[in-house]
Design brief:
The complex is a heterodimer of chains A (407) and B (145). Chain A is mostly beta strands and 407 residues long. Chain A has helices at 2-18, 152-155, 237-243, 336-344; strands spanning 33-47, 53-54, 75-83, 88-97, 107-116, 121-129, 162-174, 177-187, 191-193, 200-202, 207-217, 220-230, 263-275, 278-289, 296-306, 311-323, 349-362, 365-376, 384-385, 395-406. Chain B has 145 residues and is α/β, with parallel strands linked by helices. Chain B is globular, with a radius of gyration of 16 Å. The chains are: A mainly beta (407), B alpha/beta (145).
């Protein structure tokens, strides 16, 4: 199984190497043209704790422990841009990464037509990457980002990577800066993996709507964002409960844990300061779930970086904390511990200090090294996968190396 | 403390490298003379070249043009405009391109092509050596030496 996964990845990379690429070059206006580009990361990571598996985000079914592994961060993406006219473009992006089913099976991450109705208003329709938080729609493109991976305390619970739908964005000068707004709506088609028995939650046809307002002024960029999802299908709690010794139809005893038809909401604030060699990022978020199976949480991070020639050292701090819910109509006493145990799986309470460096070796190629010191309570289970061995004390250090490239 | 000192040393090194850059030929931002654009401020040029807002104050759509990356002109322009290396500009565009947003400026293969495109498109905007400016073009932004 592992061998086949590796082979798929190697084949994908080999394919990328032989494909003709135009390196993003443009041609004269008016004439339709096709350009092929790509991005990728060859990354390895390991942690210092075998009690849990560290994942980049919860869409990965399992993660790394004390053995070096390339599955957390390695990614390959290929993109074709078809310029139909100066104002209309078609884009298809295929990404191979370690995903919900434990394989690197390439998925279509983006496939849309965009049209600029004016220099101010642009509409895209098709499959679009989600942008629940600032920078979230480019979180797989290591080369575009400073850190090895987007801070998992903040971005790790985002299992939604695309919608089938449309978005509208508009930009206008306001004061000395630019005001930009975007609204999007669509249906999900993805699956969320669970630790137990390889159970999957099918998000197909779940409605996702959201939008954000940006203000850009000089080196400053501010964003207020909101996104929400209404789950179409039931979370597989009956199967999860059954595999833990619960009765059939567990959800009927604890209906508040049901997720079908319920909304989850994501509010966020982002500030980026990017002035010459100095970069600062501050992000805050608040997540609220109608379903009692998910705890509401708050998260945030800050990153400071200063470029010195070809090397950019950075230092960051992230934190996530959720609050436990109480059930208004709890299940019968014998089932209470099971319900509590399932609800406890979505608890987060940890912070991470991370230190790293990005070395721009040559144009389009960067090497990064990073250490993450994760410190949390033993009850902080949600950010990880695994069996949560009793020895889990909430503390973990992660070492990462990544080679990011674009072509 | 040691880190702060290192930062200061790096800053000083950076500053001392600046006079050498200004000794090179003058770099100016130009538009097509028929565009109706008289003057742009630095933020407006940043918005156009970084794809944030590609509209001239008159409402005309702006069409930015990049010099070839293998010539020092391009690196000097982005250094003067936003104090960034081309690596950083590449990373900036990687984010936008792979999230299906704005495209980078149109990439010319030679300075002659830049001149030809500037002359042929009313909304074109580019950066060239001051000595290359002719009657078809108008200077809209100069960088302090």
């Amino acid at each position: 199984m592992r061998y086949r996964r590796g082979l798929t990845l190697v084949l994908a990379w080999a394919l990328a190497a032989v494909l003709p690429c135009r390196g993003g070059e443009d041609v004269a206006a008016g004439s339709p043209s096709l350009s092929l580009k790509g991005f990728g990361t060859l990354g390895i990571a390991r942690s210092t704790n075998d009690s849990v598996q560290y994942v980049r985000d919860l869409s990965q079914p399992d993660g790394v422990n004390k053995h070096w592994s390339s599955q957390v961060d390695s990614i390959l993406g290929l993109q074709a841009n078809l310029h139909l006219s100066e104002l209309t473009e078609g884009v298809v992006q295929v990404v191979s990464r370690y995903s919900y089913d434990g394989t690197y099976t390439p998925t279509v991450a983006w496939a849309f037509l965009s049209h600029d109705f004016s220099p101010q208003i642009s509409v895209r329709a098709g499959r679009l990457g989600t942008e629940f938080y600032m920078l979230a729609d480019s979180r797989l493109v290591g080369y575009a980002n400073l850190t090895v991976r987007p801070p998992p305390d903040y971005y790790g619970s985002l299992v939604f990577s695309y919608i089938n739908g449309m978005d509208v964005s508009a930009t206008t000068p306001v004061g000395e800066g630019l005001l930009r707004g975007k609204f999007y709506a669509g249906l999900s088609e993805e699956k969320v993996p669970f630790n137990i028995n390889k159970l999957l939650w099918d998000l197909e046809d779940s409605l996702i709507v959201g939008g954000h307002v940006d203000y850009l002024h000089g080196p400053w960029q501010f964003r207020l964002g909101h996104a929400q999802i209404r789950f179409k299908n039931e979370i597989p709690l009956d199967a999860l409960a059954a595999s833990l010794g619960g009765p059939p139809g567990f959800l009927s005893y604890a209906p508040e844990l049901s997720a079908a038809g319920k909304w989850s909401q994501f509010n966020s604030l982002g500030v980026v300061y990017d002035n010459g060699p100095l970069q600062l990022q501050l992000m805050l978020s608040q997540t609220r779930h109608e379903s009692a199976i998910y705890e509401n949480s708050k998260a945030g991070y800050v990153i400071a970086a200063y470029r010195l020639g070809q090397v950019t050292p950075y230092l960051g701090y992230s934190k996530v904390k959720s609050s436990a819910k109480t059930l208004a109509s709890p299940p019968p006493a014998p089932l209470a511990p099971l319900a509590a145990g399932l609800m406890a799986q979505t608890h987060s309470d940890q912070h991470t200090l991370f230190l790293g460096g990005r070395w721009d070796i040559q144009p389009d190629l960067a090497l990064k090294a990073q250490v993450d010191w994760i410190r949390g309570t033993p009850s902080s289970l949600f950010p990880f996968h695994g069996d949560y061995a009793p020895a889990w004390n909430g503390n973990l250090t992660v070492f990462s190396l990544a080679l990011d490239f674009v072509f | 403390m040691g880190f702060t000192r290192y930062l200061l040393a790096a800053l000083l090194a950076l500053l001392s490298a600046l006079p050498a850059a200004s000794a090179m030929a003058d770099l100016v931002v130009v538009v097509n003379a028929e565009s109706g654009v008289e003057r742009l401020d630095r933020d407006e040029v940043i918005n156009i070249f970084l794809g944030r807002y590609r509209v001239f104050p008159s409402g005309l759509a702006a069409l930015p043009i990049d010099q070839p990356a293998n010539l020092p002109l391009k690196a000097r322009f982005y250094r003067k405009l936003v104090n960034k290396d081309l690596d950083e500009i590449n990373a900036y565009w990687a984010r936008l391109v792979f999230s299906g947003k704005t495209s980078p400026p149109r990439q010319a293969a030679s300075p002659a092509e830049v001149m030809a495109w500037l002359a042929a498109n009313r909304g074109a905007i580019g950066y060239i050596e001051r000595s290359m400016v002719d009657a078809r073009l108008r200077i809209v932004l100069e960088f302090a030496p």
